[in-house]
């Protein structure tokens, strides 16, 4: 979904997630972290569309630490945005930033609900702090999140493909 050659898939999934109806995939501005080394990390997909910065991760194993990782990714992405010239850091006027939307697509074998909100504050001793990051984890295993699958054929086909591979491996 982060491949510039298949922006239409990214747009389809974005529309399905956000109940929007964008039609021009060329409006997507990918900003995925691809540096060889950035704190030893590379994120899966991130892009800006309609002044929303989408940060998407795909996981085949469940981790409560996703908000920490996406917090670090977001910090780097906002740093890139601020230094790109689109943001005037010393302006006295409030400078607008793209709204962050953090999504994790889960397709591991461990049973998980269709949707879970993971929060950075859960990592703090008293679950309270001045910085919060929420990550919506969506279970995209075959048969889960039917509404999302019906709205976005590429994610449905991916889900079906993963299920078919798993069944074949059991044979």
Q: Please, could you describe this protein's structure?
A:
With 171 residues, the chain is of the alpha/beta class. Helices cover 33% and strands 20% of the residues. The protein is built from four helices and six strands; from the N terminus they run H-E-E-E-H-E-E-E-H-H. The chain has helices at 7-18, 66-86, 146-151, 153-170; strands at residues 29-30, 45-49, 52-59, 99-106, 115-119, 134-139. The chain has a six-stranded mixed β-sheet, covered by helices on one side. A hairpin with a 2-residue loop joins strand 2 and strand 3. The longest helix is centred in the middle third of the chain and has 21 residues, at 66-86. The two termini are 30 Å apart. The relative contact order is 0.15. The mean pLDDT is 91.
Structural class call reads alpha/beta
In which range does the helix fraction lie?
A: 25-40%
Average predicted confidence as pLDDT: 91
Side-by-side strand order of the widest sheet: 1-2-3-4-6-5
The major pleated sheet works out as:
6 strands, mixed
Shape: globular
Span of the ends, CA to CA? 30 Å
């Amino acid at each position: 979904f982060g491949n510039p050659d298949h922006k239409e898939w990214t747009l389809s999934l974005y529309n399905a997630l956000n109940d929007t109806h964008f039609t021009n995939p060329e409006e997507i501005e990918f900003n995925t972290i691809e540096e060889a080394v950035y704190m030893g990390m590379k994120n899966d997909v991130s892009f800006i569309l309609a002044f929303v910065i989408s940060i998407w991760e795909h996981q085949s194993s469940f981790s409560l630490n996703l908000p920490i990782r996406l917090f670090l990714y977001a910090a780097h992405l906002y740093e890139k945005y601020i230094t790109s010239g689109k943001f005037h850091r010393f302006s006295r006027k409030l400078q607008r930033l793209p709204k962050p939307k953090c999504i994790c697509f889960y397709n591991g074998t461990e049973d998980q609900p269709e949707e879970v909100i993971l929060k950075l504050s859960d990592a703090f001793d008293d679950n309270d702090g001045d910085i919060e990051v929420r990550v919506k984890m969506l279970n995209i295993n075959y048969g889960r999140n039917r509404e999302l699958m019906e709205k976005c054929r590429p994610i449905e086909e991916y889900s079906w493909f993963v299920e078919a591979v798993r069944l074949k491996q059991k044979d």
